[in-house]
Each structure stands twice: as C-alpha cells, then as structure tokens.
Amino acid sequence: MELDMTVARKAAEEAVEAAQQVISDFLARGDWHVTLKSDQSPVTEVDVAAEKAIKQVLTKALPNAAFFGEETGKSAATEKSGKGAGLRWLVDPIDGTKSFIRGSRYYSTQIALEVDDELRLGVSNAPAYGEKMVAVHEQGAWLDGRQVHCNDITSIDDAFFSSGNLTTLARDADAWSRYAQIVGRVRRVRGYGDFCHYHQLCSGQADLILESDVNILDIAALTVAVREAGGIITDMHGQAVNEATTSVLAACSVALHEQALDLLHG
C-alpha cells in the first residue's frame, strides 16, 4: 500500500519519546512491580505502561494499522481496507528488561513498521545509553541525526565480532565448536548484546554479530537499520528475517557474512 513514511517516522519517534518519559518517571520514583510471564521471563509495570503510551501514539497516527506488542500481544487492524491496510507495528517497549531491572543501561525501546509484510521503518531508542537509531527503507539509517554506514570489511580475519544471547547454540556441542572457529579467526571479540552491537554494526564500530536466542520484536527495527546502513542480516542459517526468526547472523558485508556462514555450517 501507499504510505507517507514521513508520517510513520514522526509517529514512531514520538512514540519512543513517550516511552522514554514513562521510563524516566518510574526511574525517578524508584519503585515498580516485577512479575514473571509464562516463559519465566520478567515483566515490570514499566514495560506495560511504556507499551500503553507507545500504542496510544501509534494508534492515533495510523488508526487502522495492526499492532504486535511484547506485552499486549497482537491486535488486528480496525479495518481490512482503506488507509492503514497492510500495516503492522512491532513493538518492544523495553528490550532488555533483565538489564533494566538490574540498573544496567543496556535496554532500549524498539518500534518497527511492516508494510505488506516487509519491514520498512525502524526506531531503536536507548535513553540510558544516549542513542537513538532511525532507519527508513531505501532512505538510510541515522544515529542521533547523523547518517551512518557499515564498514567495508570483507575478511573475517579483520572483523570486530560481537555476540549476544547464545544459550541455544551452547547446548549443541558441534555448533559451539563451530562458533569457536569464528572466535579464533576474528580480530576482536566482544559481547555487547541487545541494541548496542547493532548500533555499532551500523556505524562501523563492529563488523559481525551472532545471536542464537532472539524474537522478532527484539530485532525488527534493528533489521531495517542494518539493511539501510549497508549491512546484511539473516538468521544464523542464512534465512531471511521473519516473524518466526529466533537467531541472527549480521555482517557489514556479504563476503563477511558468507565466511561466517561457512564456518558455522561448513
């Protein structure tokens, strides 16, 4: 469908600002409840309140768009045709809740927009870290207002590598051994995780990322950013990112991505 991306971008940026205000208010108060979801992952009342604030902004801007939130789940578009048809917001109000609970600054708000099942817009806001990434399909990626680009590293021997959640990978001895081959080849190894190493990839501070335990709400906005910064992002098997994706292999160049895939599966 036809959509004015300026309107969508403005709404997404306003929504992360609304979430940031909610988070800031709770932090100033210093008191909130934490409960466990069915999968035993934590959720705070801050997550819920931030998602509510986000949804209000996005629904006002595009009332017919569907919504998929980390805390409130999926809601269909109010109409199946007309303005807003084929649109869906994907939202994680606090990606990195465990970090947030511990007082770490490695948490962020993630908002992406799908247009006809294709990720077209992403905003990744990390208020405690002081960074906001905005990316628009076929327009570019900006970090704090400055357009950013991935490195042009093509050899794994020159790559700065960052890993995130690796629980599933570590449970497979063969896969873990192949992961070790990457670690043994790259120039530097770090483990920034969450939004942080994707921001770094987009701005040339990192070159290769691997995670084996994610969900689409963690990475939807960041997927747009990586692509618009000139990088490549798939799951760890080289398959395209979609709603069922649970792992990530992202690189600054196709050549580097292919080398990493070969080491993981060769």
Automatic annotation (TrEMBL):
Enzyme category, top tier: hydrolase
Residues holding Mg(2+): E70, D92, I94, D95, D218
InterPro entries named in the record: Inositol_monoP_metal-BS, Inositol_monophosphatase-like
Cofactor: Mg(2+)
Keyword Metal-binding among record annotations: yes
PANTHER family, per the entry: INOSITOL MONOPHOSPHATASE (PTHR20854), INOSITOL-1-MONOPHOSPHATASE-RELATED (PTHR20854:SF4)
Name of the protein in question: Histidinol-phosphatase
Gene designation: hisN_1
